[in-house]
Structures are given as structure tokens and as C-alpha cells.
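At this stage, I needed to go through a protein sequence along with its fold in C-alpha cell form, as given directly below:
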Amino acid sequence: MASLTSIRRFTTTSLAFNKNPLKHPIKSAAEAVKNAAQAFKEDGSIGKQFTTEGAVGGTAEKVAETTEHLAKKVEQNPDEAKEEAKRAAEKAKHETKRSAEDTANKARRTTEELREKAKDAIATDPGFRRV
């Protein structure tokens, strides 16, 4: 979602283009690029999302911390980690199989519904001829 700052910058840039587009086109274009680039600086509306306090950077930092914690856990007790990995793999296998079955059942139901609708359409269309 665009922040108000980004919208304001691009709106202001648009106004600069519309004010004197023929008088100073190079200057207007340079100003537009400069304003757009500001959003990507560390303190800009987009750039700040990649710092440790921002959404993207903060998420990456949390993932790194979690991974580091799990690595220490594996070092401390490798056998438990191995069993936990086996359980997780088995659970993923079961969930994947169930998801595939659900998808196949939904596709089957959709096909049956379409077949019924086609039969009804054929039955109610007096101009339909079988070839």
C-alpha cells in the first residue's frame, strides 16, 4: 500500500510536469526521478521497510533469529531434532495427500455440476439438434 508521502511526491511530480512541460522538460524529468529516488532511501517511504524496524527487514531479522535458535537446539540434541524432522515430514506428507484428495474431489464435483447444467440446457433448448 502506498504511503501518503509517496502519493504526495508523485502527485507533486505530476504537477511539475503539467505546469511547464514544454518549457523545462529535462528539468521536470530530472526532478521526477529525484523525487522517486527519495522513496528508496533508508528513511524514504519504501526504503525504511527494509531496515530492521521496517516490515521486510524486521521479518527477515525474526526469521534469522528463529533459525539461529533452532540451529542451537539441533546442536544440543541432534537425535531429538532428527525425530522432530521425521514427524514434521510425515505430517507434511499426510497434509499434502489430503489436500490433493480435496482438490480432486472438488474438481470431480465441478465436472458433475457442469455435466448436469449441460444436460439441463440441452433438455430445455427446443432448437438443439444432436449431430
The chain has a mean pLDDT of 77. The two ends are 55 Å apart (CA to CA).
